[in-house]
Design a protein that fits this description.
The protein has about 290 residues and is α/β, with parallel strands linked by helices. The protein contains eleven helices and ten strands. The chain has three domains: about 110 residues, Tetrapyrrole methylase, N-terminal domain (Cobalt-precorrin-4 Transmethylase, domain 1, 3-Layer(aba) Sandwich); about 110 residues, Tetrapyrrole methylase, C-terminal domain (Methyltransferase, Cobalt-precorrin-4 Transmethylase, Domain 2, 2-Layer Sandwich); about 50 residues. The protein has a five-stranded parallel sheet, sandwiched between helices. It has a five-stranded mixed sheet with strand order 6-7-10-8-9. It starts with 12 loop residues before the first strand and ends with a helix.
Length: about 290
C-alpha cells in the first residue's frame, strides 16, 4: 500500500526534488518536507531557488550547480554525500534532469554507492502533452532547438520520420523562426504552442504547423516560457514526400495569405522554385 503524507527522518543521500514551474502552490508537501530537512540544496540559480525557499519559510544553504560549473561543483557535492550529508537537487523550475545537467550528478552519486531518491512533481513537458490534444502513446522530448536556422532544420529533419509526438522548449524571441523551420521540414502536422503553464496567463494555441507559423510571424513576440508539441507524421511513401510537403504547405498557406505571399513563403521553406509554386497556387485558387 502506498504511503500517504509520510514525513520520516531522511536518510543520508541525494534527493532529486521537483519544484513549481510557475504556481508556487504546486510544491508538494513531501517536497517541502525534504527541502526543510536536507543539509544543503544544489540549484541552477541560487536567486531563483531563494525565492521558493523564502516563500515556504525554509532556510538552508544554497549551492550553485549548473552546466557551466558542474565539473567543479560535483566533487564538492559528492564529498558532502560521502560525509553522510543529505543534499537536495532542484532546477529553476520543474523536474530536475529534464533539459539540465543533473543526470551526471545522479550517475556519479549512484556509482559511489550513495542513496538516491526522487520527489515527483511539476514538469512543463508533461503538462504540455496533457493539454495539447495530440497523441501521447509515444513521444520524444527534444530539449531546446539549436539557435541557428541551418542547424535547427537539420535538428527537425533528424526526427522527421519519428512516429511520435515531438516535445521541445523554445524561447519566446525564437519561436517565430522555429515554427517556420518546423513547418518547412515537417509539413502541416497538428501542433500546439503552450505558454505560461500554471501561471495567470496560461495559453494553449492548437492548429496545424503552417497556421501557427503564420500566426506567430505576424503577432507580437509572446511572453513567458514556451513548450511546443508537434504530432506524429502521417504515413507516406518516399516518392511522394517532396511533392506532398510542398502541396500541403501551399494549401495551408493559402488559407492565411495571398497567392503571392503564400508562394514566396513556401518557396523559402522548400527547394521548389518560386515560379512553380506560384503557378500551382494560382491553380489551387482557381479550383477552389
Amino acid at each position: 500500500m502506498a504511503e500517504f503524507g509520510s514525513q520520516q527522518i531522511l536518510k543520508p543521500g541525494l534527493y532529486v526534488v521537483a519544484t513549481p514551474i510557475g504556481n508556487l502552490g504546486d510544491l508538494s508537501p513531501r517536497a517541502k518536507h525534504i527541502l526543510s530537512e536536507v543539509d544543503m540544496v544544489a540549484c541552477e540559480d541560487t536567486r531563483v531557488t531563494a525565492k521558493l525557499m523564502t516563500a515556504n519559510l525554509i532556510k538552508k544553504p544554497l549551492v550553485p550547480y549548473h552546466e557551466h560549473n558542474g565539473p567543479v561543483a560535483r566533487p564538492k557535492i559528492l564529498a558532502k554525500l560521502a560525509a553522510g550529508g543529505k543534499v537536495a537537487l532542484v532546477s529553476d523550475a520543474g523536474t530536475p534532469l529534464i533539459s539540465d545537467p543533473g543526470f551526471k550528478l545522479v550517475a556519479e552519486a549512484q556509482d559511489a554507492g550513495h542513496y538516491v531518491s526522487a520527489v515527483p512533481g511539476p514538469c512543463a513537458a508533461i503538462m504540455a502533452l496533457s493539454l495539447a490534444g495530440l497523441p501521447t502513446d509515444r513521444f520524444l522530448f527534444m530539449g531546446f532547438p539549436p539557435g541557428k536556422r541551418g542547424a535547427r532544420e537539420s535538428w527537425f529533419k533528424a526526427e522527421a520520420r519519428t512516429h511520435a509526438s515531438l516535445v521541445f522548449y523554445e524561447s519566446a524571441k525564437r519561436l517565430k523562426d522555429c515554427l517556420a523551420d518546423a513547418a518547412g521540414v515537417l509539413g502541416t502536422r497538428e501542433a500546439a504552442v503552450c505558454r505560461e503553464l500554471t501561471k495567470r496567463f496560461e495559453e494553449v494555441r492548437r492548429d496545424d504547423l503552417m497556421a501557427l507559423a503564420s500566426y506567430y510571424a505576424q503577432a507580437e513576440t509572446p511572453k513567458g516560457e514556451i513548450v511546443v508539441v508537434i504530432g506524429p507524421p502521417e504515413e507516406q511513401t518516399d516518392g511522394d514526400a517532396t511533392a506532398l510537403d510542398m502541396e500541403t504547405l501551399l494549401i495551408a498557406a493559402l488559407k492565411h495569405m495571398s497567392v503571392k505571399s503564400a508562394a514566396a513563403f513556401v518557396a523559402e521553406l522548400t527547394d521548389v522554385p518560386k515560379k512553380a509554386i506560384y503557378t500551382r497556387a494560382l491553380a489551387l485558387t482557381k479550383d477552389s
